[in-house]
Amino acid sequence: MKQFSQIVIVALPILTLLGGVKTAVAQSFETQTQAQSSNCENPQTQTQMNICASEEFARADAQLNQVYQELLPMLSPQRKEQLIKAQKAWILFKEANCEFEASRVSGGSMEPLIRATCLTEQTTKRTADLQRYLQETSL
């Protein structure tokens, strides 16, 4: 089910962009996902917890990207190149580390929650690093 939901989540915007018509199944799944995701104050099911954790990661990632985009233009060309290299290495580390962390429940219903929580924690830490660099650069 996890792979199916990931495929549908990726495919729906693509179909919309291409002018495709959403099928009743796709519309039903989208409505169900929106309904489940709207209860992040007090998620009651594992699916809701997984969706909420994924949404929290998306917010953390958006904040990281915002800080990263603010920092890049403030750097010299050499430091910009170094940051880009470091960021690419950090992304690889983050992905591998969180895959490892989630592997303890591999195939289980908690796997997406563990992975998303790890990604959020790692991303929040990296955002703090980037914010510190931004403050130091603007002094």
Note down, in words, how this protein is organized.
The protein is mostly helical. It folds into 2 domains: 1-38; 43-137, Substrate Binding Domain Of Dnak, Chain:A, Domain 2 (Up-down Bundle), CATH 1.20.1270. It has 5 helices and no strands. The protein has helices at 2-17, 24-37, 46-71, 77-102, 111-137. Helix 3 (46-71) packs parallel to helix 5 and helix 4 (77-102) packs antiparallel against helix 5.
By CATH, the architecture of the largest domain is named Up-down Bundle
The class by helix and strand makeup works out as: mainly alpha
**Can you summarize the main beta sheet?**
none
Strand content: under 5%
Gyration radius (Cα, Å) is 18 Å
Characteristic terms for this protein:
single chain, 139 residues, mainly alpha, Substrate Binding Domain Of Dnak, Chain:A, Domain 2, 2 domains, 5 helices, 0% strand
